[in-house]
Amino acid sequence: MNITFRRALGTVLCGALGASALAACGSDSGDKASGGDSKTVTLVSHSSFNVTPEVLKDFEKASGYKVKVLKSGDAGEAVNKAILSKGNPQGDVFFGVDNTLLSRALDNGLFTSYEAKGLDRIPEGVQLDKGEHRVTPIDTGDICVNYDKKYFADKKLAPPQSFDDLIKPEYKDMLVVENAATSSPGLGFLLGTAAKYGDDGWQEYWTKLKANGVKVIDGWEQAYNEEFSGSAGGKKAKADRPLVVSYASSPPVEVVYAKDKPKTAEDAPTGVATGTCFQQIEFAGLLSGAKNEKGGKALLDFLISKKFQDDMPLNMFVNPVAKDAQVPEVFTKFGAQATDLQTMDPKRIADNREKWLKSWQSLVVK
Amino acid sequence: MIVPVVFFGLFFAYPVAAIVGRGLKADGVWRFGRIVDVLTEPDILHVLWFTTWQALASTALTLLIALPGAYVFARFDFPGKQLLRAVVTVPFVLPTVVVGTAFLALLGRGGMLDELWGVRLDTTVWAILLAHVFFNYAVVVRTVGGLWSQLDPRQEEAARVLGASRFAAWRKVTLPALGPAVAAAALMVFLFTFSSFGVVMILGGPTFSTLEVEIYRQTAQLLALDTAAVLTIVQFAAVSLILAVHAWTVRRRETALKLVDPARTSRRPRGAGQWGLLGFVLLTVLVLILVPLGVLVERSLSTSEGYGFGYFRALTSNEGGAFLVPPIEAIGNSLQYAAAATAIALAIGGLAAAALTRKAGRLVRGFDALLMLPLGVSAVTVGFGFLITLDKPPLDLRASWILVPLAQALVGVPFVVRTMLPVLRAVDGRLREAAAVLGASPWRVWREVDLPMVRRALLVAAGFAFAVSLGEFGATVFIARADNPTLPVAVATLLGRAGELNYGQAMALSTILMVVCAVSLLLLERVRTDRTGEF
Known about the structure:
Shape of chain B: globular
Structural class of chain A: alpha/beta
Shape of chain A: globular
Order of helices and strands of chain A: HHEHEHEHEEHHEHEHHEHEHHEHH
Low-confidence stretches of chain B: 528-535
Oligomer: heterodimer
Mean pLDDT of chain B: 80
Distance between the termini of chain B: 28 Å
Structural class of chain B: mainly alpha
Largest sheet of chain B: 2 strands, antiparallel
Low-confidence stretches of chain A: 1-36
Number of helices of chain B: 24
Number of strands of chain B: 4
Largest interface: A-B, 86 and 83 residues
Number of helices of chain A: 15
Helix content of chain A: 40-55%
Largest sheet of chain A: 10 strands, mixed
Radius of gyration of chain A: 22 Å
Strand content of chain B: under 5%
């Protein structure tokens, strides 16, 4: 309360004195807002970034740097802000640019090359900037269709397993997808179909999907919590669609946050249609013009260290990239391995994204 | 006057101009050709059309439903009036994420209407319109009702004695006095619905899109700064036009009013007609406001083991892992930001309102309109503008906590000005002159003459600024900050994760947000002093 008053009072003074005094108002309790001292290293990320505080403290102790985390909106937003403030970045390291946005970030010269220590423990397949090491892969997460187990058991119907299944008449009016223009799982699913059926084939596929009663919702929250009958929120909302585009890690999350935890995979409320997945890889990189380059490099090393990689899955619900990282039991038990994982070269995504979104919108939404 | 001008120049005009400039300038050359290109796209035209007509429809509907409410709150006394006044203001400050969820629960499949009559409105424009009424009901009740309660009913009675019919007396006496307040309220509602973002995004689905949603998409998602810049200019022009019309109507109708203590003007309803009106208003409040809020409370309490406080208990632990701190700490953060934002908004808005009452002339009128502009400019534009302008010492505020209250105050100031101006202007100038003749300094004149009269307006303004800041979502999400989430941000984060506990916690936090707002507003209702009755 005291702090509130002090702050409020300071604010009134700042407001009343106008701009000239603002320089003195910007910083909080003595630490430099600009992060100019080399003892602080700043990580800029999207709002889903998370780490166990103890793990971060261990890094701070070992390296001697204090870590400051700045979160700025969802993934696309955060990347675009970083691009806008290029050359005078808000921090030293950026985490959270994925393969769908990678080209835009690299083409804009957002990152400086740095080969992180311990990169040999990371599969070559996910190192999409092997030549220059401007970005380092940190985690992967697959975007897949989730299904409501109970619904299909009650109906005595086998849940769909592949893209091809989704357009079959027995799954009519069951699928909810996110708007590809406004949601990253939505875009991932669209890219998955484009990777699967090619430049021309995907439009035909979506025409069939539409004829089969697909429902488009703008954001993941609404689609998953309000429309999908397998989620806890959906059950309360009496949702009636048993299929939704979400993540391969969503079933484990449902289990972790269930009040009475299921013991076996059979009892879990939701499952993954393993043949409908698109691979998302998230990267981190050293920002060009970082004020604390040395600290930034240490932080990047830490992001692929075993300690952080072990801690990550249950904080962000993604898969670690390091080969020696421990995947939590709940992932192995309740998650699923994609069988026909779709991927796409970032450059191809960048070249076609606008065009595809435009034709997708006129095909499906309008 | 100089402080508000500098404030707006620095934290509004400069950032917005910078981001628009970046969009329209390529290699140092202005490309005004882009304006024509963008404005001839059929998609964009469609968005413009939809934005305008839904705003008009929402405003009409809100006035229709809320004006009787304003009358009832101003003129009648009934048990629980203060509580109810606080309750109707709560929707106004709820984050749109929460409201969208509540309305889906009402209007969507399996929602209440669906179960009762098989009606589903979740993907129709009705859902948007109803949600807009839900949000803006309080704007009308508080701006119009605030003034209405201070109008002297004896003026109307005098007209009746002189032979005017009841309707004529109302039309000739009360209506002209209320005109500016009604216009101000209508304008605010129009501005809000014209630049509606969250509601349209959630309830409109992919088919309906407003200008604001389109600007967000073009800027934040596609980084198409040129298109976004053109749309920003269009929105700016539209908002300026609305404001110009508004300023003109207000000037034509403003008169010095004789204000009285609101406690003297309200009484218990008499007769079947008045009781009926009161009943009707209470019913609309129940259906339109309490039911959606009730849905949230119901969901926050319904755990898998029946009803209980399990989700609320979960908020205090850090096991969820959605944040580095227990979600409950978001409440403290929110209150701090809101207090700071209110202080800024009151300082800036108060100075501006005082300056506007003293002076007249074209320049001042322009300034009046200028203060309203932030309401009609998208948070995205301002947020990105901050990012590219406030990035150099001494003004590198990008990671500073002060930036959030500053952005929130931008939206709060217009409320402060709108609420205080009608009352300040209605203070009879001769009182000030008399005080000055008797040797009072200008400061003392303000303190002894203006302040007692406007104290109530000041409190209402503070309440608004506080409430706006508490539920403000756009700027808070937009400004990168260290991990100290505000309530709305925490709600959105929890809703963005799968799992029963997260969903339940989101609903529990929304409920807490509602209660915190209602309590803050109730306190403001209480802090009335009786000094207003001294003149």
